[in-house]
């Protein structure tokens, strides 16, 4: 496993995963635990709010920011997280309602 520092607090994304990473059905248990414990650090490295402290953090920041392929568990887990929140925001819901009938109609 990479030498990326864990955050002081667990990372939660209540907006996109209101029931947590583990119960979302998107992540494995290992990925969910890693995102919870390291999510703040990974987010800060991606947004360049944190200066990388070692080679693993530098590699993560470079791979994520430049979109490079990597076999790193941290890069794969974070990329899966970013892809999941992007996919959730791009959902399109279609309705079969044609607009002619009123839902409030009292005619039975």
UniProtKB/TrEMBL annotation:
Source domain of life = Bacteria
Q: Which InterPro entries match?
A: DUF413
Similarity section: Belongs to the MaoP family.
Q: What is this protein called?
A: Macrodomain Ori protein
